[in-house]
Amino acid sequence: MEPILRIAEIAALFSAVVLSIYLIIVLIKVKETLISIEKDFKEISNKAVPVFENLEFITSKFKNVADSINSEVENIKESVKTMREIADNIVTFERRLQDRVEVPIMEAASFFSAVVRGIKVFTERLRK
């Protein structure tokens, strides 16, 4: 029975050695994979830094442009408001002028019309 145990022991030890060698090979491949992943992450981070810097610059420029647009929109709003006030003042002036001048002009026009009609009637009477 002892030789069978010895053979079993040898078989178990041999299996342990083979398993250990297999695990060493697997761990070496895992190490290579992790090194490759680390290299890829370093490459990505090296390439990402300029991209983020450009993105920050572009964002800053965009903010400046947006602020400038907002400022110009405010200027346009103020200009439109001023133009509206000027137009309202012109309309008010026109109404006051019309109220003051319309009646005397109409009276003068009626007077001249009456004078012309009178002259016309006078000349027609002279002809007869």
Quaternary status: single chain
Rg estimate, integer Å: 52 Å
- The count of DSSP E runs of length 2 or more, i.e. the number of strands, is 0
- Residue share in helix: over 70%
Shape descriptor reads rod-shaped
Number of helices: 1
Secondary-structure element sequence?
Answer: H
Structural class designation: mainly alpha
Integer average pLDDT: 91
Strand content: under 5%
Describe the model.
This protein is an all-alpha fold and about 130 residues long. It has one helix and no strands. The longest helix is centred in the middle third of the chain and has 126 residues, at about 1-125. The termini are far apart.
Please specify the SSE layout and strand pairing.
Blueprint (H helix, E strand, L loop, with lengths): L1 H126 L1
Q: In brief, what are we looking at here?
A:
This protein has 128 residues and is an all-alpha fold.
Main attributes?
128 residues, 1 helix, mainly alpha, rod-shaped
